[in-house]
């Protein structure tokens, strides 16, 4: 098991395209699966993307600076698995950022935009089978990213971007718990209702508590 990555077709701006392709592939990886291969081989990646090893090497340095990759002398580059403490800290920071985004959203977003959040969950009733979990996981991720975007607060969006990609890897694993998925859907509906009512205090509180419950679940049940 390893990265799923598409070959680059456009030879222009290879460094940036290689970086984005690697970052997206890593953030979509189930990093916390004990069977996953975390090693990143420069030669293999260059062949997959259809580029030389130079843009791959530069991309890996950039990804290491962002906390996605770790280079170990004489062994190579590896996708980083965060420690439990690091994961919990990231979730707490996200709770603060997203809850403020929800407060801003109640003032800045149009009714039409808020209605799009409800449309995301129009086909889920909280009792979907495990077969639908992967599909729901993507919807769940889109929901949280949309709240940040609808805040229309550029500094908040910029600060959140890197953190979101780290948390995407966490959410991909946490949402495979059917109970978590069911409770998550219910939480999201209550959040949407508060946003539709322009109730900033309730929306902020619901979003923060929803994310903090994720931290509690991770702390209790995850084996790092």
Q: How would you characterize this protein structure?
A:
This protein is mainly alpha-helical and 224 residues long. It is 67% helix and 4% strand. The protein folds into 2 domains: 14-79, Orthogonal Bundle (Arc Repressor Mutant, subunit A), CATH 1.10.10.10; 84-221, Up-down Bundle (Four Helix Bundle (Hemerythrin (Met), subunit A)). The chain has 9 helices and 3 strands, in the order αβααββαααααα. Helix 5 (111-120) runs antiparallel to helix 6 (133-150) and helix 6 (133-150) packs antiparallel against helix 7 (154-174). 30% of the residues are buried. Mean pLDDT is 85; it is low at 126-131.
In short:
With 224 residues, the protein is mainly α. The protein has helices spanning 14-27, 42-49, 53-65, 84-108, 111-120, 133-150, 154-174, 178-196, 200-221, and strands spanning 39-40, 69-72, 76-79. The radius of gyration is 19 Å and the shape is globular.
Topology:
Layout lengths: L13 H14 L11 E2 L1 H8 L3 H13 L3 E4 L3 E4 L4 H25 L2 H10 L12 H18 L3 H21 L3 H19 L3 H22 L3
Antiparallel strand pairs: 1-3, 2-3
Helix pairs in contact: 1-3, 2-3, 4-6, 4-7, 4-9, 5-6, 5-8, 6-7, 6-8, 8-9
Number of strands: 3
CATH superfamily annotation of the largest domain: GntR ligand-binding domain-like
CATH architecture of the largest domain: Up-down Bundle
Order of helices and strands: HEHHEEHHHHHH
Overall domain count? 2
CATH topology of the largest domain: Four Helix Bundle (Hemerythrin (Met), subunit A)
What is the CATH class designation of the largest domain? Mainly Alpha
Query: What structural class is derived from the secondary structure elements?
Result: mainly alpha
């Amino acid at each position: 098991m390893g990265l799923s990555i598409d070959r680059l077709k456009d030879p222009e701006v290879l460094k940036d395209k290689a970086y984005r392709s690697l970052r997206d592939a890593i953030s979509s990886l189930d990093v916390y699966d004990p069977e996953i291969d975390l090693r990143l081989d420069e030669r293999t990646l260059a062949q997959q993307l259809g580029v030389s090893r130079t843009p791959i090497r530069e991309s890996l340095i950039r990804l290491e600076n962002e906390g996605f990759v770790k280079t170990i002398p004489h062994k190579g580059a590896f996708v980083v698995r965060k420690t439990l403490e690091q994961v919990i800290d990231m979730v707490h920071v996200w709770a603060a950022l997203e809850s403020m985004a929800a407060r801003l959203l109640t003032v800045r977003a149009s009714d039409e935009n808020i209605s799009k959040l409800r449309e995301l969950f129009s086909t889920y009733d909280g009792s979907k089978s495990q077969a639908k979990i992967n599909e729901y996981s993507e919807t769940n991720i889109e929901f949280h990213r949309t709240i940040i975007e609808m805040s229309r607060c550029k500094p908040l969006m910029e600060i959140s971007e890197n953190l979101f990609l780290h948390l995407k890897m966490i959410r991909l694993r946490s949402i495979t718990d059917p109970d978590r998925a069911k409770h998550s859907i219910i939480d999201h509906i209550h959040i949407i209702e508060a946003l539709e009512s322009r109730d900033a205090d309730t929306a902020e509180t619901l979003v923060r508590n929803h994310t903090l419950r994720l931290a509690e679940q991770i702390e209790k049940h995850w084996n790092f």
